[in-house]
Amino acid sequence: MWTRYAALGDSFTEGLMDVTGPEGRHVGWADRVAASLARVSPDLEYVNLAVRGKLIGQVVEEQVPIACDLKPDLVTLAAGVNDALRRTYDVHASATHMENAVRLLSGTGAEVVLFAFGDPSRRSSVMKSVSGRIAKANEATHAIAERYGCRVVDFWGCAVFDDDRYWDEDRLHLSPAGHELAARAALSTLGQGDDSWRTPQPTPAPLPAWRRAGGHAAWVGGHFGPWIGRRLRGRSSGDGIEAKRPAWGPPPPDAYAVNQP
């Protein structure tokens, strides 16, 4: 069993939009995985180097060397969605960054877990172009995982994530329930749970058209517009943000561990 777990990536791994933890930062699926693993490995140490808004090249440049120096025996690496959101996305460059990261991390003896992300067009037709980019990124991820013997947490085609209750109102980050679901998926991939997380939950009746239209307008003004504004100014949501758990320490309290069904 693992004794030193390092989580690398962007806002997904930082835990944005989950509940606020004892450090005053969002908890997130990786924190929940660490708390869950501590139940079977009481001496587990944990770092979370993820920072919101990071591109995969930045993750490789800024987080991977630190992780290698820390010598973890388990690493989760989830990055690339921020790249895929850009029209200038280059799948070959992104895959090269990913492979470089995996090669360096695997070279330390760590077990590396990668992520194949879900299809955003299942929830929004606006994201159809991004869907194709993510599909290509996932293909590269699976190829890299096979080459280096990595496990992959695969969200592609999972209908369970079509449920709006698993997403924050910004439609990009997971809700607290979504982070718990992602933690269950990661634990299942690690052999610490089953695949029941894939089963969709009963959904409420759909909202009337006028309510959906109002929701779209609120999203554009409150989330999409500000995101475009940051892009035009060359700014990132991660500017000035530091990793919430940059040094080895105990995982979050057991209250954040996942209770498997």
Describe the model.
- This protein has helices at 11-14, 29-37, 56-70, 81-84, 91-106, 128-148, 176-189, 209-233, and strands spanning 4-9, 45-48, 74-78, 111-116, 151-154, 245-249.
- The chain is built from 8 helices and 6 strands; from the N terminus they run βααβαβααβαβααβ.
- It has a 6-stranded mixed β-sheet with strand order 5-4-3-1-2-6, sandwiched between helices.
- It has one domain (4-203, 243-256): Rossmann fold, CATH 3.40.50.
- The protein is an alpha/beta fold and 261 residues long.
- The protein is globular.
- Residues 209-217 have low confidence and may be disordered.
- The two termini are 22 Å apart.
- Helix 2 packs across helix 7, helix 3 packs parallel to helix 5 and helix 5 packs parallel to helix 6 (128-148).
